[in-house]
Amino acid sequence: VKVKMLSWNLDNYIVPRNYDPTLHPFEVLQEYVRVLNATKLEGVFAKPFLAWLDGHRDGVSCLAKHPKSLATVPSGVCDGEVRIWNLTQLKCIRIIQEYVLAFVGLLFTVGDDKTVKQWKIDRPGYREEEEAITYNIRKDTGIDHHWKEAVFATYGQQLDIWGKQRTNPICSMTWRFDSISSGKFNAIKTLILESCTSNRNIVLYDMKQATPLKKVILDMRTNTICWNPMEAFVFMAANDYNVFTFDMCALDTPVMVHMDHVSAVLDVDYSPTGKEFVFANKSQSREVYHTNKYIMYGSDEMNIHLWKANASEKLGVLTSQEKAAKYYNQKLKEKFQHHPHIQPTEVDHIKHSKPGSVPIVSEKKKHIVAVVKYLVFLTILMYNYLLLLI
Which DSSP helix (H) or strand (E) runs through 96? Predict the structure, then answer.
């Protein structure tokens, strides 16, 4: 038996390129024309809207993500109806007459009657009666589920940790008399919780020690918060007219300040990669990043809209030539990103002021009022108490 082997050495068939700039005097001009055409074509072929999910009879006030199934999304409306959607089929697979605020594995709903109910995602079988497990939370208004353990947290006047099949909370945590508007478990450091209160505070809690750790006071109220799914110590706070990225180890200065919002930011969420985020700043609207390519958006129009994160991105299978062209155009945009026709430059806000008359304060320092630790707070209370006794 004879065996013949064919060898293919690419070095023998690739013509080496001479990068001497004197041999390519018009290279920069040609690349600029190409990137300018690519930028204009993106605007021409931008079609961000994909589909809508219709069926609700009231404004959509809440969307949630399934931790394991990207195709399953529950939505809640103001009239107490919950619908579970299948995104691949673009249809509703189940309807529950409750109000949803959190979702993980099972479906947990919280209603105006101050109760939390636990449901199964699947429909009940033939001649099977479904009975939801009810927890009486008395005064709380929001809920978030632990990412690994069978516990969940409710928030309102205080932060309560509940275990499944328990009628009383495992522990309760509060910092004075702050009304909590939002609370979230950390996706990586799952024993860490954070909450934002009505008096401009963001508070960190340790579920293991059942105590609050520290809080940061901002100059304006925080509407909601969100943990980065890939970086354990990074979270984002949706503030009135600004969005802040914080490192919980250094709360005195935000990592980044995202500005130029025209109204109060009501909701914010990270993409699964943690590199992108989406926010909502329109009245009665909620937005959730479901994957890296799509955005789900619900509003008071009684519909849930599905959008592309990149408006001009082509869906489906790309050929090798299309992938190469996409990669080449992206590199050209990165090279010419500071050109005014490719990306507009920022406006100098103090150019009309007299030099030296306006003190320059860092945008990261401008919005922080104070950072308070829990032990320092207890020491102040004990000192005031001793003064009263004397």
Answer: strand 91-96
- Interval 215-273: pLDDT, tens: 888 888 888 888 998 888 999 988 877 888 999 888 888 888 888 777 778 888 888 88
Token couple for 272: 């699964």
What gap in Å lies between CA 167 and CA 165, rounded to an integer?
A: 7
Which residue in 197, 256, 245, 252 sits closest to 223, CA to CA?
197
> HSE-up of 301 (CA within 13 Å, CB side)?
12
Ordered domains of the chain (ranges, CATH): 21-47+319-388 (no CATH), 49-308 (2.130.10.10)
Contacts 24+ apart (CB under 8 A), 175-180: 175/201, 175/203, 175/212, 175/215, 175/374, 175/377, 178/203, 180/142, 180/155, 180/156
Which contiguous run of DSSP H or E holds residue 328? helix 320-335
Question: Under a CB-based contact definition with an 8 Å cutoff, are residues 246 and 259 in contact?
Answer: no
Burial class (CB in 10 A: 0-12, 13-18, 19+), 339: middle
Predicted structure pTM score: 0.62
Spatial CA neighbour of 229 closest among 257, 269, 194: 269
